[in-house]
Design brief:
The chain is α+β, with helices and mostly antiparallel strands and 375 residues long. The chain has 3 domains: 109 residues, Orthogonal Bundle (Butyryl-Coa Dehydrogenase, subunit A, domain 1), CATH 1.10.540.10; 104 residues, Butyryl-CoA Dehydrogenase, subunit A, domain 2, CATH 2.40.110; 148 residues, Butyryl-CoA Dehydrogenase, subunit A, domain 3, CATH 1.20.140. The chain contains 12 helices and 10 strands. The strands form 3 sheets. Strands 1-4-5-8 form a 4-stranded mixed β-sheet, with helices on one face. A hairpin with a 2-residue loop joins strand 2 and strand 3. Helix 5 packs antiparallel against helix 6 and helix 7 runs antiparallel to helix 9. The protein is globular. It starts with 6 loop residues before the first helix and ends with a helix.
Length: 375
Amino acid sequence: MDCNFTEEELNIRNTIRQFARKEIAPFIDQIEREKKIPEDLIQKIMDMKITGLPFPEKWGGSEASFTSLLLAIEEMSYVYLPCMFYAVVSAMTAYGFLNYASDYLKEKYLKGLLTGSLKGAWAFTEPETGSDPKQLKAKAVKDGNDWILNGTKRFITNSGIADIAVIFALTEKGVTAFAVETQNPGYIVGKREEFLAFGGTDNGDIILEDARIEGENILGEEGQGFNILLGVEVFAKVVSCAGNVGLAQAALDYAVQYAKEKTHRGVPIGLKFQMTQWNLATMASKVAASRAFLYSVGAKMDKGENVFAESALLKIFTGAAAREVASDAVQVHGAYGLSKEYAIERIYRESKFNEVVLGTSEIQRVVAANALMKS
């Protein structure tokens, strides 16, 4: 598909494609078996500086386009979706610092996030809420010039390996975003989660017990936290949708490959059975539509346009498409699609993620519908 990518964007895509296939692909079976991504591989991913692609050079970024980040994430996700989380979550955290933090905090943390020397985490979700700020229980109280944080965060990616985490807590003025170093004695890594997929990623609880935070370590203003969350999640949703496109393309390619190799009475099933051809064509149409939608939104972000509603629609569409394409790919494989010997079994499990994380598809429909009613 011709999206009029620039030469720089195509070079970035090709560089990440080669990196992912050379450095990540050989470790997939090991990661799935051991439920852990090797630390040296994580460092290699961070050293590629994918996080910093669309950020200003002033703060350690590459000053590339936002589209270049989408291309990089698509290529990583095509090979192995879980590995893209390290870049996405750190980019999400960096985006929060870039747009809402003081120069003091940018100097302290943003450069490290963008150059790969620091890993970030973004912590809003709690045991009793994933989207509703009125149910937030974590609290921060003033103590002189400092803040004291207490509470529990749940399902936080990178929470056990991050260097800096943005923690959302209630103050007298409302939800507030705090920059918390994970070496803080009051920052405690809680239980690790085991999910349907992504066994190699770090995800789990953060327990805050009288964590003392400097007064300067607030993003934006006190009480501005929920608006910061919404702004950053637009960025994160669009980036995560590149993961959907990469995953769906991988599912399609595996299905086509199987349909060529699997024969019935000497004839490949992709040539013999119309039902298989129907599945492949339907899958290909969903991948093409998802990719076109993704990069149209990416182009708008590069122009500085507001894509609040479109990010919700994109997440709805590409999330469902990835799951449906992966399901059809399993169908093409037949019983072999259920076997862990075939990559499509893993891809099918991974395909559910973006209908749940960063706001469920149901929440995205509410966001999109409200925007339509206000237009």
